[in-house]
From TrEMBL:
Organism: Ruegeria sediminis
Keywords of this entry: Hydrolase
Name of the protein in question: Amidase
Domain of life: Bacteria
InterPro entries, sorted: Amidase_dom (IPR023631), AS_sf (IPR036928)
Entry keyword annotation includes Mitochondrion: no
Presence of the UniProt keyword Hydrolase in the record: yes
Amidase domain boundaries: 28-451
Length: 480
């Protein structure tokens, strides 16, 4: 492989070469930085370059290896960090103009864990204002574009992360997810991710002035967006390393006890009255067939209370947002984000007062029902969205736009409300009139078993192929 193509390597391939001495950390990072400088101007995925400090850190890693120090599990892997998480010396802006000078005094646990493992941060990625859209645009940094084309939103809120990693800007991209913010960008860009379950990845920002709301704590998780499923198996064990600053972190191993096979998978195409697009159905069928070929026992079965659970969960979250965030949104948000939130509150009427307390209590009921269901079916294969991914700014088009973007995404935020792991993996390229675009499916796993969801994603990927290869041909002007 020539130096100009090192950026194409997966994280797993990079680590194999850097540990053996076939590739230096400096060369791996330099290739990613060069790719960033070439590809990012058209995408605006990276909004804060860390190129200088990244190259210095890579050289230090090489020096340490050459003097006999052990290499970490992510030695020399270029990564990006989302701008809503603290990285010492950089602004944690959350996409908000008023926060542009809020410099982090220290690293968040995810940043510390990645760097302890030997990863190298090359840049920070864009997010919408307050990290609360399924699209990525803001007045501070501007719009992020999808490398598949400007006809598709890059997703959000980790839209910069999804666009960057699929364009080859770093092998791993940090993101987070309170209602779908890892999985929306994965679906938009054809990437792979797993939304970890509650408590799996330690989270805290040293810059924060107050604790987050209870639902924000229990629904929001930190994770990674990657180009391959195997890179999640490589990197997530480092992400879940304990940090005492998160008192509710669950210190379990990444790999759980093997499940007696064949593993049963519940398979559903139910979209609760929303139209299931033929391309999404084709992707689901492909994913099902891939799992059957890989030895899974796939059965048609309906999981419990998805629509009711998802809608109640998001209405409860909107109640907490109304109480704790609305004043800041009104004071510091753009007119665009204020308008979007007004429609959010119409689509998901906030629970308040006694109703909010009751619905937060009911969360345990839904979680229990899902725990019982996953005793029989350790995995559940579902749509992620019922339609192909939406266009940029669709959520600015009133009630109809927000309904298409978030209203129909019940399979997404249901998993946040009940705290279960959920992988998102591409299963098809749809040849749509506006241009080709990836179609992802979702794989839910029983509690604490992110590894099972990623195993299933790898089985689907083995049949479909790595979506990044198709995208890079398209970006080079070739037939996808």
């Amino acid at each position: 492989m020539t130096d100009s193509n090192i950026w194409r390597l997966s994280a797993t391939e990079i680590v194999t070469r850097t540990k053996s001495g076939a590739l230096t950390a400096e060369d791996a990072v330099a290739a990613a930085v060069n790719r960033m400088e070439k590809a990012n101007p058209a995408l605006n995925a990276i909004v804060d370059s860390c190129a200088v400090e990244a190259l210095e850190r890579a050289r230090a890693l090489d020096k340490a290896r050459n003097t006999g120090e052990p290499c970490g599990p992510l030695h020399g892997v270029p990564v990006t960090i989302k701008v809503n998480v603290d990285q010492k010396g950089h602004a944690t802006t959350n996409g908000v103009v008023a926060l542009k000078d809020m410099i982090a005094p220290g690293d968040a646990p995810v940043v510390a864990n990645l760097q302890k493992a030997g990863a190298v941060v090359i840049g920070r990625t864009n997010t919408p204002e307050f990290s609360f859209r399924a699209d990525t645009d803001n007045l501070l940094y501007g719009r992020t574009h999808n490398p598949w084309g400007k006809h598709i939103s890059p997703g959000g809120s980790s839209g910069g992360a999804g666009a960057a990693v699929m364009a080859g800007i770093g092998a791993l991209a940090h993101g987070n997810d309170i209602g779908g913010s890892l999985r929306f960008p994965a679906a938009a860009n054809g990437a792979v991710t797993v939304k970890p379950g509650l408590g799996r990845v330690p989270a805290w920002n040293p810059s924060q002035k107050a604790e987050r709301g209870l639902l924000a704590q229990s629904m929001s998780v930190q994770g990674l967006i990657t180009r391959t499923a195997e890179d999640l198996h490589l990197s997530m064990p480092s992400m879940i390393s304990p940090d005492p600053r998160d008192p509710f972190h669950v210190p379990l191993s990444w790999r759980g006890v093997p499940v007696d096979g064949p593993i049963r998978v519940a398979f559903t195409k139910n979209t609760f009255g929303y139209e299931l697009h033929p391309e999404v159905e084709a992707a689901l069928d492909t994913a099902r067939d891939a799992l059957v070929e890989a030895g899974y026992q796939v059965e048609n079965a309906e999981p419990p209370d998805v629509f009711e659970c998802g809608r109640i969960g998001y209405r409860a979250l909107m109640g907490e947002v109304w109480t704790l965030m609305k004043a800041d949104i009104d004071a510091h948000g753009s007119q665009t984000i204020r308008d979007i939130f007004e429609v959010y509150f119409q689509e998901f009427p906030p629970f308040t007062g006694d109703d909010l307390v009751r619905m937060m209590a009911k969360r345990s009921h839904y979680a229990r029902e899902w725990s019982l269901f996953t005793e029989d079916y350790p995995l559940v294969l579902t749509p992620f969205l019922p339609q192909p991914f939406f266009k940029p700014d669709r959520d600015t088009e009133g009630a109809e736009g927000v309904h298409e973007v978030l209203g129909c995404a019940v399979y997404s935020y249901t998993m946040n409300f009940v705290g279960l792991p959920a992988a998102c993996v591409p299963a098809r390229v749809a040849p749509l009139p506006q241009g080709p675009q990836p179609i992802n499916v979702q794989i839910v796993a029983r509690r604490w078993r992110e590894d099972l969801a990623v195993d299933a994603a790898a089985a689907i990927e083995a049949r479909v192929g790595r979506m990044c290869e198709t995208l890079w041909r398209l970006m080079d002007g070739q037939e996808p």
